[in-house]
Design brief:
This protein has about 675 residues and is of the alpha+beta class. The protein folds into three domains: about 140 residues, no CATH class; about 180 residues, Alpha-Beta Horseshoe (Leucine-rich repeat, LRR (right-handed beta-alpha superhelix)); about 280 residues, YwqG-like (Hypothetical protein YwqG fold, Roll). Helix 2 links the parallel strand 13 and strand 14. The protein is about 10% helix and about 25% strand. The strands form seven sheets. Strands 1, 2, 3, 4, 5, 8, 9, 10, 11 and 12 form a ten-stranded antiparallel β-sheet that branches.
Length: about 675
């Protein structure tokens, strides 16, 4: 009997040790770095944000300011531009225990393998945080250290702060484990995400959470096909309040159950990676469904009727040979992804969907995808030869000279076929607006009298100014190419880098009709983009034989250029070639006209054809603008923007339908 009691007692102690973290004994809040005290700021926040449809982690931002801040005394741990203010932000999951955040998260160089994320600010950039964050009994504590990247210096980091237990909105929290769910009352969880469930059926214990608004079941890539749920349960309709259902890589499931159609509150539905061949009509017709992703299943047929509320429908990677005509008439459908399907026919009018994602070859073969012209009156004939370097005497000689070495013999014919008759543009020095109508990057334009600075209505409903990028003096550039207008001015504007739109204006007359940019009255606050007005710089130009970057450029390797595909795998040779052509030009091609753009995926011409219709080969890069320290151009991460026009519109002198894109690493 005594032995039994002893074993029971030992087991109880072990259970307590493995399920409960030792309580905080110190009830005083503090914040210390390298022994130096900081005072918490009122702007510190510990909350569960409400912005996500699928719930959020516990977000904790602890802000503090160094006591008696002294720039010199704190220089070893703090940066020199926040005046002693610092912060730590932690995003924490799997920490729910009976309504109290509980857990230990260990960081090694600010990284945690369990998916917890942290950020810091105000400290020296080369300091990294390590050791353990503890949540227990309504407190958060950290006892660890900063070390520099070389590991040669270490500074203690310690803080403690009481958590606002009563104020935490757990209805916004995303539960990600059965263990934490088991400690939650049935009416608390609203969002559940379970990854790689090792069970053939959905655990019965989940059905008690009838207040669920989102349920996500996710399987990683590489999980064996024999692993996980064998079906999507018919009983899924017991979660009657679901607004989002996401079932990702359901490899064993062969049927999409009709009972999903009972979830009338559902707005977002994601079912991917299953073996299902059809979609029940009741599911497609869900009355509030707005976003529906049914990608990478085995669908061969679709229902004739879809909900009129659908805004986005993704059917990529299925076995569909056609689509129902009803999709064309859906009033709210603005995005349809039907890539990677063996399509044989499509209903007329599908091309009118604003964002139709489909291989360009299939668009041209199965839809009315002819380019209608910027004016809607169709295209006109154009001389394609003027866009290629081989057709200019000077550039043809440049090609011969650069490619004279026998090591380029295999590529000579292909490079002659694809080299473009480009114009290299390089900013040379600040522009003080002393010359009206010169070629200029950044600053403000010299606009024609009577033409106001262009504006647009932002998504907030505000009237905002476009951001000026460049003006090109066509008469100055006429000796270097044959495709731009022979005189007048071209102006290039964008909306902003996050929601990129373009405005290109052509003015056919000379500089005497222009109003200097300094007289327009435009200020920084008038410009929508955060970068405002860039620094004005003059630019020099020269003709230039431009060749591809040989990175994902397969669409250029046809006919005589087929052999160039070898350069995809020969990076050093490709770079040597590009450098040789750049050196042969009179100017560095920092920016350029009618050139190639480095792209990780589709070319600018393919992007333009997808957006504006027509054949990619009938589009030309009107202007490429790179990030440039002179002007302050910085397009995302040192990227480029490009303006693309149909060659027919260029021949007409109509610049009202120009596509603009951005590429960044």
């Amino acid at each position: 009997m005594l032995v039994t009691l002893l074993i029971t007692f030992v087991n109880l102690i072990i259970t307590m040790m493995t399920t409960h973290i030792a309580p905080t004994t110190d009830s005083e809040e503090f914040f210390r770095v390298d022994g130096r005290p900081f005072t918490y700021l009122d702007s510190s926040e510990i909350l569960i944000p409400a912005f996500s449809d699928t719930g959020n982690d516990l977000s904790m931002t602890l802000k503090a300011r160094a006591d008696n801040y002294n720039e010199k005394l704190h220089a070893h741990i703090l940066n020199d531009y926040e005046e002693g203010e610092v912060y730590f932000t932690f995003s924490l999951k799997q920490i729910y225990r009976n309504g109290i955040p509980t857990g230990r998260i260990r960081y090694e160089k600010e990284r945690d393998t369990s998916g917890h994320v942290m950020w810091k600010g105000g400290f020296k950039y080369d300091l990294e945080l390590s050791e353990e964050l503890t949540l227990a009994d309504g407190w958060v504590r950290f006892d660890g250290y900063f070390h520099n990247m070389m590991g040669t210096k270490r500074y203690a980091v310690q803080f403690a702060k009481q958590l606002p237990i009563e104020g935490l909105a757990w209805q916004h929290y995303r539960f990600t484990s059965l263990e934490e769910l088991r400690t939650a009352p049935a009416n608390v969880p609203r969002h559940i995400q379970l990854d790689n469930i090792d069970a053939e059926t959905l655990p019965e214990e989940l059905y008690v959470y009838t207040e669920l608004e989102s349920l996500t079941l996710y399987y990683d890539y590489g999980v064996p096909a024999s692993y996980g749920l064998r079906e999507i349960p018919q009983t899924i309709n017991r979660f009657t309040k679901l607004k989002q259902l996401a079932l990702t890589r359901m490899q064993r499931a062969t049927v999409i159950p009709q009972t999903i159609g009972d979830l009338h509150e559902l707005r977002n539905l994601y079912i991917t990676g299953s073996q299902a061949t059809s979609v029940p009509e009741s599911v497609a017709a869900l009355p509030n469904l707005e976003y529906c992703v049914l990608s990478n299943n085995r669908l061969t047929t679709l229902p004739d009727r879809f909900s009129s509320s659908i805004k986005s429908l993704a059917l990529e990677g299925n076995q569909l040979k056609t689509l129902p005509k009803s999709l064309v008439a859906l009033p709210n459908l603005t995005r349809l992804d039907i890539n990677k399907n063996p399509l044989k026919s499509l209903p007329p009018g599908l091309e009118r969907i604003e964002n139709l994602e489909l291989e360009i070859e299939k668009k041209q073969a199965l839809l009315d995808y002819a380019y209608k012209g910027a004016d809607g009156k169709g295209s006109v004939a154009f001389d394609d030869s003027i866009f290629y370097a081989r057709n200019d005497t000077a550039l043809a000689q440049m090609l011969d000279k650069v490619l004279a070495d026998d090591k380029w013999a295999d590529y000579r014919e292909g490079l002659n076929a694809v080299a473009l008759w480009a114009v290299a543009l390089e900013t040379t020095g600040p522009d003080d607006y002393d010359t009206k109508g010169n070629t200029r990057f950044g600053g403000l334009p010299d606009l024609p009298k009577g033409i106001a600075y262009p504006t647009f209505t932002s998504h907030k409903g505000d009237l905002s100014g476009y951001q000026f990028i460049a003006q090109l003096n066509c008469e100055e550039l006429a000796p270097y190419q044959s495709y731009l207008p022979r005189e007048g001015m071209l102006y290039f504007f964008i909306t902003d880098q996050e929601d990129l739109g373009a405005r290109v204006i052509y003015h056919p007359w000379g500089a005497e009709t222009l109003v200097p940019g300094t007289s327009l009255g435009i200020k920084e606050e008038d410009i929508h983009d955060d970068f405002g007005i860039y620094e004005p710089h003059k630019a020099a130009a020269s003709p230039y034989a431009c060749i591809p970057h040989f990175y994902n450029d397969d669409h250029f390797y046809a006919g005589a250029a087929e052999k160039l595909a070898d350069l995809e795998e020969n990076y050093e040779a490709a770079e040597e070639l590009r450098a040789a052509f750049e050196q042969a030009s009179g100017q560095r091609p920092v920016h350029g006209i009618n050139g190639y753009v480095f792209k990780q995926h589709d070319s600018p011409q393919i992007e333009a054809a997808n957006k504006l219709k027509g054949n990619p080969e009938d589009f030309v890069v009107l202007l490429r603008v790179s990030s440039d320290n002179n002007t302050g151009f910085s397009f995302w991460d040192a990227g480029e923007i490009y303006f693309v026009i149909h060659k027919s519109d260029l021949a007409k002198g109509d610049f009202s339908n120009v596509f603009c894109g951005l590429e960044s690493s």
